[in-house]
Amino acid sequence: MSRISELVEELCPDGVLHRRLGDVAEISGRNVAPKDMGDGDVNIYSLPAFDRNRTPEILSGTSVGSAKTKLSDPAVLVPKLNPHIPRVWRLENLPDRAYCSPEFYPLKPDSTILEIGFLYHYIANKIEWLAGTVTGSTNSHKRLQRDDYLNLRLPVPPLEVQREIVRILDQFTQLEAELEAELEAELEARQTQMKYVASTLLDGDQLALTTSESIRDLCNINRGVVISKDYLTEHPGAFPVYSSQTTDFGVFGYIDTFAFNDHEAITWTTDGANAGSVFYQRDKKYTITNVCGRLVVKDDRLLTSYLYYQLKYRAKNYVSQGMGNPKLMANQMGAIMVPLPSIQEQERIISILGPMESLTADLISGLPAEIQARRKQYEYYRDKLLTFKELAA
């Protein structure tokens, strides 16, 4: 930071010129039909490619489905559509035969005045504001026009100042990416460890020697009822409704009544992409929807929390995939066989898996907050570094 202060004091102590973006950069490129791309491989910078780790798709020219914009010079790709998703792509070293989706504008800076990295960080800093200026029936239909970008006014400090700012912001970006990768790796390691320990405890040789019984013989089984979003709106309250969600412990919403008042129970998702997801309910007054089931243990040889761990790691194996709609219905759940070790052994298993699950849950909940905190810190410094006093006319 001190180096930037020194450069500003030396090179632009009275402020910097603020220029219209269209005066220091242009929207470049020309549209090319697939038939004119030839048979060789081409690099396609598309919206899906951005979302997949910012790696271009490599296709043969004749297999490209529609016209693309030819890229000949380094550029910053900025989005036309869905600007609420900040897809800003910095392309400094273009491969041969590079094209971008027409849903991007390629912004080519005048390199004698504007560093491409400075332009990239400036647009990244402005994209949220730009998204708020456009209209559309939904976020997915909001669209930015050429002049929305070209009419932006930006500070244009001397190139030496720009380069130092880019160096610092690139370093921030790299540190943020490394932190995110480190936290995600730690989470993955914890989850892998949890699965290994659970597999050892729940499917080990010792349990294989115990008796097993079906869930229908060990539990009372219930299905839920249809509850619409309108019903949630019309009957707000404090009692949770569990459904097919996997976030927020399966909570669909809250209403003013409840169907069950359980000391201990297990709920699970019966239909859809999340079929087989299992949740442990303790001292809860709640309701379940028609895509959710409920288990209440009726046999004193089985602990509910032990059954929860058995199903957490095994229920997905019983999900049927017929007709493209995954299901784990009540009859399928009821047929699952559960090993029944002694109560003491069940308690031992719970005492090991419970703390491990809590640690993993804490990491899962803390990961987004930690990443967001670092991102806010980066955005704060980015905004500070890109703000300059305007040179008086």
From TrEMBL:
Species of provenance: Neomicrococcus aestuarii
CDD domains reported for this sequence: RMtype1_S_Fco49512ORF2615P-TRD2-CR2_like (cd17255)
Alphabetized Pfam families for the sequence: Methylase_S
GO biological process: DNA restriction-modification system
Family: Belongs to the type-I restriction system S methylase family.
Superkingdom, natural source: Bacteria
InterPro entries associated with the record: Restrct_endonuc_typeI_TRD, Restrct_endonuc_typeI_TRD_sf, Type-I_RE_S_subunit
SUPFAM superfamilies according to UniProt: DNA methylase specificity domain (SSF116734)
Binding partners and assembly: The methyltransferase is composed of M and S polypeptides.
Descriptive protein name: Type I restriction modification DNA specificity domain-containing protein
